[in-house]
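Final report, closing paragraph on structural work. Over the funding period we assembled a curated collection of sequence-structure pairs, and we close with a single example.
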Amino acid sequence: MKATGIVRRIDDLGRVVIPKEIRRTMRIREGDPLEIYTDKDGEVIFKKYSPVGELTQFSMQYAEALNRVSGYPAAVTDKDTVVAVSGVPKKELMEKTISKELEDILEDRMTFAYMDEDNNPLYLLENSEKYFCNIVCPIIADGDAIGAIILFSVEQPTQLGEIEEKVTQTSASVLGKVLEQ
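Its predicted structure, as stored:
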């Protein structure tokens, strides 16, 4: 654990303010759920809660099935990181931060489909121009965008067909329904 040197007091309602710099660095936004951990040494640890991350094994199976059916690498993300991947070495993408542009797509709850070379490419990862999103479908659970299912390519973006888009949308919808239960 790394000390920040910041000290905050708890107010009379039991609240503590997480400094803006830490929220920005850790990508904690208003309304984000935080999981609270304690240990016997008196430490209290806040961790961003990811419902999609709770289903990592299930998400991995979904990514593998999508990869087999579509022939393209597939990824499942939460709002910040890649939680499951198939079709490329896992160590290259697992737990890596998604790009800001991809994060914006999720916030807008819009399906993205790469059309042609005249469009700006959508990168999968922050600070990496190796992986390009071909289709992005947000996972919606209880009205909130909590992640995405993505078909992507390596080295250059590819325009995919309507069938791949529908399969990806269906997968995102099913994962969203599973997470609502």
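Residues 162-180 form the longest helix (19 residues). The two ends are 34 Å apart (CA to CA). We thank the funder for supporting this effort.
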